[in-house]
Design the sequence.
């Protein structure tokens, strides 16, 4: 895995830069600018390059295009249904060694209205679903997330610690375990399994966004199967955030900030899947 190789080589801090250069809009802008330069000597080739760059920029800002790539490039599992949640509740009530694990999705800047750092919208949505699932099933919750590779301010709190504070203060539901050291999905898996195995947990219900779930499952299943962790650990996917916006077909193919953000997230996962396969 390329990402793991960068981490093991002490180059983890450049992963956000590496990702930014490979994901839109950087490569498409570079293509369009290169095409503009080429037109001086090869007008037809340059025009094609500029056109492809501009069309690519348009499409990577459309929610319709991002949904299409997500459906065809990522194998997202279905969310838990009512029957599955009830089965988990029954098993948890019978004393089965289960736990919900929610993965952090980033921190926002200091929120002046709160006077402290806040979770990103993605993290809050994941936490909310994990706590809702905990109330539905009676299962304990663990949170994983430290300072990401792109964080340079030491004052930024560990994401899992902030999740625990919000869960207690706003939902009155304390988290059972937190992993405040993980910087990426690979470390989420390794550190969380190392934390939960000694506690006797043998089955995890993993909560993260649907488009992130395939990569999270790969990492957690690999960590569960590693030679250094001989005890079996079953991983159950509990994806969220898979709702489709009810906008017109025309608007889905018009550029928007939402479309650009969604495409960036989808292509980030596609890039990670390609890196994992090498």
Sequence:
């Amino acid at each position: 895995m390329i990402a793991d190789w960068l981490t093991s080589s002490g180059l983890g801090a450049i992963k956000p830069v590496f990702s930014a250069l490979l994901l839109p809009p950087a490569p498409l802008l570079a293509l369009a600018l290169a095409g503009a330069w080429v037109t001086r000597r090869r007008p037809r080739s340059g025009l094609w390059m500029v056109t492809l760059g501009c069309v690519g920029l348009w499409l990577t800002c459309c929610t319709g295009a991002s949904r299409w790539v997500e459906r065809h490039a990522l194998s997202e599992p279905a969310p838990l249904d009512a029957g599955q949640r009830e089965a988990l509740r029954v098993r948890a009530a019978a004393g089965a060694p289960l736990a919900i694990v929610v993965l952090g999705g980033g921190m926002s800047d200091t929120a002046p209205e709160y006077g402290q750092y806040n979770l990103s919208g993605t993290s809050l949505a994941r936490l909310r679903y994990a706590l809702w699932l905990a109330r539905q099933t009676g299962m304990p919750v663990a949170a994983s997330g430290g300072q990401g590779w792109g964080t340079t301010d030491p004052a930024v709190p560990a994401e899992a610690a902030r999740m625990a504070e919000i869960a207690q203060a706003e939902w009155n539901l304390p988290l059972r375990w937190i992993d405040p050291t993980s910087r990426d999905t690979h470390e989420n898996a390794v550190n969380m399994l190392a934390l939960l195995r000694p506690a006797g947990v043998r089955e995890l219900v993993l909560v993260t966004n649907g488009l992130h779930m395939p990569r999270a499952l790969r990492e957690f299943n690999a960590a569960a199967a590693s030679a250094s962790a001989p005890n079996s650990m079953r991983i159950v996917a509990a994806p969220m955030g898979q709702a489709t916006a009810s906008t017109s077909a025309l608007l889905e193919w018009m550029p928007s900030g939402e479309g650009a953000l969604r495409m960036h997230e989808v292509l980030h996962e596609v890039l990670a899947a390609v890196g994992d396969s090498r």
Remarks:
- The chain has twelve helices and seven strands.
- The CA atoms of residues 132 and 171 lie 9 Å apart.
- The longest helix spans residues 257-276.
- The chain has a mean pLDDT of 89.
